[in-house]
TrEMBL record:
Pathway: Energy metabolism; oxidative phosphorylation. It comes from the Bacteria. Its main location: membrane. Belongs to the heme-copper respiratory oxidase family. Its EC number is 7.1.1.9. Its cofactor is Cu(2+); heme; heme b. Residues 540-703 form the Cytochrome c domain. This is cytochrome-c oxidase.
Length: 713
């Protein structure tokens, strides 16, 4: 191959299309799997019989499988597909290492398979979007490093000196996701399949929602913005509307986004200063977010006539519009007066799915429709089918989102409604649930429509592939050294666009500032979490019951956070205090009330009520949509883990005495025998070691500590 510098000599090389094809197939496969599970759990909420009566398919266990499958399997593979295709062409070079590409692909698929196995078994940390246990967390870290190694290696050997805006977003995505994952996954293993978070209570909640919000930001948003900046101009055959706007968009977005996590914890036990920081930066977020949306839509100037004919552009227009809608609604929901009504309701579910189905889903579909004809050197099999997919998907989003908004408004208003006499108008939580069941059915129908469109796409892509042949190694030529082709080569920002190391350093600094400002005071200044003398560690039986609560995914439907509203203190009891959670590894505040809050449920009902409620929820709450848990009555608590769990928690600062740890199972059985004896008085025979006894012990403990006189330390 001829080589040269500035003499016009060219280099012949080959793009790796096979890895792009492989990630594309994985995207479609896991997309169908994740969405199918989503449809199932949508109908589970409408009708508990859809839980199928066994412990591996209940809503509590399968819901995190749905979120992980859609976020990390469907969207994750789509990110790799788009990055591996665009990065090679933007850098004018093949990926740094074919071996690293394959490790990235197969490693990521194995991680997904491990989630498919462990989550239905109840092996979970319970931390939203980070439910996978510690060995899988380590695997995620290693595969993410492989991806970054391959990406930065490719950037280092690029033939195009100038780094286009899409690459900036890829760099920020890699670095920030790495930081988020490592910090949030700080946990202490008990055994190979069980760990406890290294943080507790309020601090665990702050770290988790710093992670949770920014997982949305830097896994579902920034990589897709990079992909938008590449694929939208390509599909429209138009340059990006404003390069300067993309610069402002990038730096302001990655700096501001990282601060906004606390808006998920408004009116909770999180310190007010942290809540206020979250609100301020959430409101500021609308500017860079809409800057990106406007840049995307205005790129289509002069190409709107193509939107009528090209399904790829239809998908892209709706995707960018959905991004704009979701990023307007997010700051609005972070306002305290709006959040007071919306939080814990299905309004949040609607908001999240407008972004997921519209922004991530539709942009992924657009990329697939654009890529497959080029990978196989052929034409798309049927634009009519693609257009049909577009309309089915759009209808699916509407059928999903509108009922969920309606349900959310209904919940928020009914929960807060008082009579003229000053009592709660709907004192029974179940009254609200029964009102919104029809909305759950409509949501399920929306999911079926959306999934139906995906099946049309699968058929269309298969026929497209069969009509051509894969160009696994696409031959291309490029100058050996190419000067910057940017129209803004002399712009003040152009110097960093040629320096990936400096870009990475500055991006890391930008995303670290917000987290450090929030974390350091929360962990160092003790007054942020005032201790309460009467709050004691869980007994060994209560701890086993708490772990069963986590295993069954109860936190997916029940919160443990009574907010300081009259409507909540009237319904549930005294509002929750920060000091009550100091021994909670992990925190269990929850993010959705499908059922009532449980923080003050301890002592509210006799043991027999909980026994019958877990066996058949409708026997205690007619019309309940909660599934039954008969296996809790048949299975025994694993006593072999008790001592190790207490030892691990002691290492994390929970003040268990060595003598108590040594006699943990004796203490456990003593308390269990007491509960079994109480149940026997009511005519209920139960083994003391049965899991239901541990579950009852935990539920009866909840919220009882502050009934003792509080003293500040």
């Amino acid at each position: 191959m001829p080589r040269g510098t500035d003499r016009g000599l060219t280099d012949t090389f080959f793009y790796d299309n096979k890895i792009v094809r492989d990630f594309g197939i994985a995207t479609v496969f896991w997309g169908i799997a994740g969405m199918l599970i989503g449809v199932i759990i949508a109908f589970q909420l409408a009708n508990p019989d859809v839980n199928m009566g066994n412990q591996y398919t209940t809503f509590g266990r399968v819901r995190p499988l749905h979120t992980n499958a859609v976020i990390f399997a469907f969207v994750g593979n789509a990110i790799f597909m788009g990055v591996y295709y665009s990065l090679q062409r933007l850098c004018k070079t093949r990926m740094y290492s074919d071996i690293l590409s394959k490790i990235n692909f197969w490693g990521w698929q194995l991680i997904i398979v491990s989630a498919v196995i462990t989550l239905p078994l109840g092996i979970t940390t319970s931390k939203e979007y980070a439910e996978l246990e510690w060995p899988i967390d380590i695997a995620i870290t290693l595969i993410w490093v492989v991806f970054g190694w391959n990406m930065f290696g490719t950037i280092a050997k690029r033939r195009e000196k100038h780094m286009y805006v899409a690459i900036w977003f890829y760099i920020a995505t890699f670095l920030t996701v790495a930081v988020l994952h490592i910090v949030n996954s700080y946990e202490m293993p008990v055994n190979f399949l069980k760990s406890y978070s290294g943080y507790a209570g309020v601090q665990d909640a702050l770290v988790q929602w710093w992670y949770g919000h920014n997982a949305v930001a830097f896994f579902l948003t920034t990589p897709f913005l990079g992909l938008m900046y590449y694929f939208l101009p390509k599909a429209a055959n138009r340059p990006v509307y404003s390069y300067r706007l993309s610069i402002i968009h990038f730096w302001s977005l990655i700096f501001i986004y990282i601060w906004a996590g606390p808006h998920h914890l408004l009116y909770t036990s999180l310190p007010d200063w942290a809540q206020s920081l979250g609100v301020v930066f959430s409101v500021m977020l609308i500017a860079p977010s809409w800057g990106g949306m406007i840049n995307g839509l205005l790129t289509l100037r002069g190409a709107w006539d193509k939107v009528r004919e090209e399904p790829v552009l239809k998908f892209m227009v709706v995707a960018v519009t959905a991004y704009g809608m979701a990023t307007f609604e997010g700051p609005m929901l972070s306002l305290k007066n709006v959040n007071a009504i919306a939080h814990f309701t299905d309004w949040i579910v609607a908001h999240v799915h407008v972004g997921a189905l519209g922004w991530n889903g539709f942009l992924t579909f657009a990329m697939l429709y654009w890529l497959f004809p080029r990978l196989y050197k052929t034409q798309l099999h049927s634009k009519k089918l693609a257009n049909a997919h577009f309309w089915l998907g759009t209808l699916g989003i509407l059928f999903y989102a509108i009922p969920m908004y309606w349900a959310g408004f209904t919940q928020g208003l009914m929960w807060k409604q008082f009579t003229a006499e000053g009592t709660l108008q709907y004192s029974n939580f179940l009254e609200t649930v029964l009102q919104i069941v029809p909305m759950y059915y409509l949501r399920g129908i929306g999911g079926v429509l959306y999934l139906g469109g995906v099946f049309l796409m699968v058929y269309n892509l298969i026929k497209t592939a069969k009509s051509g042949s894969l160009v696994a190694n696409e031959r291309t030529e490029a100058p050996v050294i190419v000067p910057s082709i940017s129209n803004n080569a002399g712009h003040w920002h152009s110097w960093i666009e040629k320096r990936p190391t400096q870009m990475a350093i500055f991006a890391t600094v930008a995303i670290m500032i917000g987290g450090l400002v929030e974390f350091i005071p929360a962990f160092v200044i003790k007054s942020n979490v005032p201790t309460i003398a009467s709050v004691k560690p869980y007994t060994s039986l209560e701890l086993q019951g708490r772990d069963l609560y986590i295993k069954e995914g109860c936190v997916n439907c029940h919160t443990q956070m009574v907010r300081p509203f009259r409507s909540e203190t009237e319904r549930y009891g005294e509002y929750s205090k920060a000091g009550e959670f100091v021994y909670d590894h992990n925190f269990l505040w929850g993010s959705k009330r499908t059922g009532p809050d449980l923080h003050r449920v301890g002592g509210k009902y006799p043991h027999s009520w909980h026994y019958h409620h877990m066996m058949d929820p409708t026997s205690m709450s007619p019309g309940s949509i909660m599934p039954a848990y008969p296996w809790l009555f048949e299975q025994d608590v694993d006593l072999s883990t008790t001592e190790d769990k207490l030892k691990t928690l002691k290492k994390l600062g929970v003040p268990y005495e060595d003598e108590y740890i040594a006699n943990a199972n004796e203490e456990l059985m003593k308390q269990a025998n007491g509960i079994a004896a109480d149940l026997k008085k009511e005519g209920i025979e139960v083994k003391p070691e049965a899991e239901i006894v541990a579950m009852i012990a935990y539920l009866q403990r909840l919220g009882t500590d502050i009934k003792v006189k509080e003293t500040q330390e």
